[in-house]
């Protein structure tokens, strides 16, 4: 292992390195689209939808403009709107919550497991039996940082209380639960292809995936003004289309995703070994799960001091996320209606993301480990 005195010259930047690694193939794909002259909902989107559906293991993938729209369109297609609530973890990217509100529903915040940071079934059960629980129509299980939620526990509660189980897989491309790909477990799922994701476009993009043919058809109509027939809106839809350029780029990257996730897990193992015996909670990958390691998030009491120490040594540490959704002014009203969230509130000031992506060198990870060990020494 390197010492802190032999710092790497720099930490490679993701997603720029992802583009550089596939520059020629990406440029050829873009040129193909430009010369074809069909730029919206053409053959590239259709081909990517088929390929991504096959990757996830579902019948349908519908390309949309971004991951937030994907959640909103799922809820709209299921007619979960005014007067309805959706259970969602407060510890998530705020997009999960924003999409619920945009669909016209109300988020009901649920606490998370203190180890995996994903929705806690016991907290969901508490929410179901709360006064506002009567309005619950769906549960949005977020595979935060790349680790699946306890889908068996959540499904049991959904089945018992006639709730629709949905998945937010924006950070978990390629993760599995009992050998099954995330995104194929609930009634439907939303993916994001934001450039920093495990499968990232060069711009925004998203997908709704499902095995429900009727649901897929309605999402297709809603993503384009509610058209079943061109220029004739049968529903109040929106404009949310994955464009041809992004679809062509994603087609270049999709066949490489499994290898890149394997690289992420390899680097995560270096962190896991190097940070052992320190007062740090490192990410777990439960035996039933395969972690996608979108982010490598540790939990540490001295979070702010450690982050300052790392950044002073040119290590790009970050906070994902500096505040839970229920702690933000935009969603304060919904926070008042939700059950207590003690695990979430305890972990927010303690979480820190360490550098992790497929193009990091081992010595960059080892250097980060050495600096952290020096901090505690």
Q: Tell me, rounded to a whole number, the average pLDDT.
A: 96
How much of the sequence lies in strands comes to 5-15%
How many strand elements? 14
What are the segments in which pLDDT stays under 50 over at least 5 consecutive residues? none
Shape: globular
The CATH C-level class name of the largest domain? Alpha Beta
The total number of structural domains is 2
Characterization of this structure:
Helix 2 (23-36) packs antiparallel against helix 9 (244-253) and helix 3 (43-56) packs parallel to helix 9. The protein contains 14 helices and 14 strands. The protein has 377 residues and is of the alpha/beta class. The radius of gyration is 21 Å and the shape is globular. The mean pLDDT is 96. Helix 5 (94-102) links the parallel strand 2 (85-89) and strand 3. The strands form 4 sheets. A 7-stranded mixed sheet has the order 1-9-8-5-4-2-3, sandwiched between helices. Strands 7-6-12 form a 3-stranded antiparallel sheet, with no helix packed on it. Helix content is 39%, strand content 15%. It has 2 domains: 20-110 and 117-255, Aspartate Aminotransferase, domain 2 (3-Layer(aba) Sandwich), CATH 3.40.640.10; 256-376, Aspartate Aminotransferase, domain 1, CATH 3.90.1150.10.
